[in-house]
Structure formats: structure tokens, C-alpha cells
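Session log. Operator J.P. requested a structure for one protein chain; no other inputs attached. Running the standard single-chain path with C-alpha cell output.
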Amino acid sequence: MKKSIVKMMSTAPHGVRTDDSKTEKVTTPVVNSMSRALSHMKEDSIVSLDPAKVDPSPFSDRFELDAEGRTELEGLKLSMRDEGQKIPILVRPHPTEKGRYQLSYGHRRVIAIRELMEESDKPEIVKVKAYVRPLTDAELIKEQSLENGVRENLTFVEMSLWAAKLREAGLKQREMEPILGQVQTVISNMLKISDCIPSDIIYAIGRAKNVGRPAWMKFAATFDAPGAEARVRALIQSDDFKSCAPSDRLARAIKAARDEKISMQQAGSKTKEILSEGNMLASVKYNLSNTTISIPKNKQKFADWLSENLADIHSNYVQHQNKENEDG
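Structure written below.
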């Protein structure tokens, strides 16, 4: 397996592949931006770089990997292990450190390749394929935003924080439209969310993958109430809050901001993540009526094995409990 990793990462064919089915789903401004980016790529040469010499973008646009992000990364690693790196990253020469580079886009690909390199018995020959282009800060941000809109699947709240970064870089809302692929009304709402909700509270809640604009707007509006922020800050420190899934955290934060009591069902509901060697193996959701175990798709073989052996596992558990009762 290690040998195949090295082979795929060091000999995968060069070139750029595009997926027309993906670009059709993106709004027209982003498609236009993608066309311009592809024109640049045709003029660029692909080089192989040491992943250790690629530094993150100076403009952070995403959360640290949570359980959801970790699962997605594991899927990317599996794909790269089998097929190699299909799409190069984009970097610029580091403005202050000779021989190093700063990432514009390809954040997850770099992490995946670094982890594959650590798993290889010949890490020195594992490289990351990249376009190297001299970019100003403004150009780097625009390229980074293009990748986010087309491929990196940022959640709505991550997009909101990124819109705030674009504004800090001096971009007007009309200039953000082709970058974010959103109209000014939506961008205005994104900026309201990032302005009203302290960023550390957003990070405490998490990426909230399946939560969209309405819920975040509702939460942003609650900060007008006296004492709302203090109540939310007290909530996010609790272990019970931290054990919940991001969508449940947001629901609880809204109730805390409004000074509403949490329902019996919500109070009895929590989610626990089970990790194996730093990777998410399963999540267990408890509520008043049942317990649900969810296993990521990339652990399908384990899920199949578990379903086939669950009856035996339960029998062993019963025997163990009976023995403990006899000894007690």
C-alpha cells in the first residue's frame, strides 16, 4: 500500500482536468471567473514542490478540521491514494522567505498529500503538483475565492467569514459578486452575520454543514437583546454543548441568546464522536427515545462487518454483564 501511495503521488499524469457537470451548477459570474482562471492555467507550467515548503494562505478562509471536515479529507486521501493528484494547487513565491511558497488554493489537497507523505516509506519523493504564479494580495484572494466557490464547498457561515475577509482586503460588495458567486443582497446578509456574531462564537459552533442563511440570520438578530452575548458565551463553555453536533449547537445558542429554556428533547440530545487514530470512526447521537450510530461512508467495510457481527457483540456484552452481576 505504501509503495502505491508513492507511485501515485510521484507519477500521476500532469495536466488539468475540468468537470463540466460541476461548473454548470455554479452561478454565471463564477463560471466567467473560472474561464479566466483556466486561461491563466494554460499559460502556466506545472511543477513538483516539496509539500513541507508550502505555507498556508495569509488569508484564512476556513475552520480547522472538525469531524465533518476530517471525514471529507479522508475521502480525498483515498481518492489520491488510488488515482494521484489530478488537479494542481496554486501558489505564489513567499514574499519574505526565499525557497518557500504561499498557498492560494488547494488547502485540502496539501493537507491530504502531507498526510500521505507521512504514511509513505519514501516521503522524500512525494511531491505536490502546483502552478507557481507571482500574485499580489488582491490577486491571491480572488484566486482563492474562485476555488472556494467552485470546489472547496464552504458552508454558509464560512462564506460569511470569508466575505468579511474580502471586505477587510478592500473589496466592495459589487466586486465580491463574481468572486463569491452571490448577489449583493446575499453578501450583505453574510456581512451582517460576521459583524453581529463574534467570530470565536461562530468557531465554537462549527462549520454547520447543513445549516443555511435563515438560521444564521436568526442567530445574528438575537445579539440585539441585552445579555445575549454573555448567555451564549456561558453556554459554549459547557461540555454538554461541546458534545452536540454543530446544528444542535446553533439551536441551543439561539435559545440561550433569547433566554429561552431548552426543551426536554433537546436537553436529552447530544452527539459523541468516536475517533480512531485521529480519524472519525463513528458518531453516536443520544436522545430521549433512542441512540443512533452513524458511520462515515469511507468506513463502509467496517459498517458492513459491524452489522454482521452485532448480534455476537451483544451476546458477549450480555455474558460480561451477567458475570459482573455474579461476581458482585
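Operator note: The longest helix spans residues 300-327.
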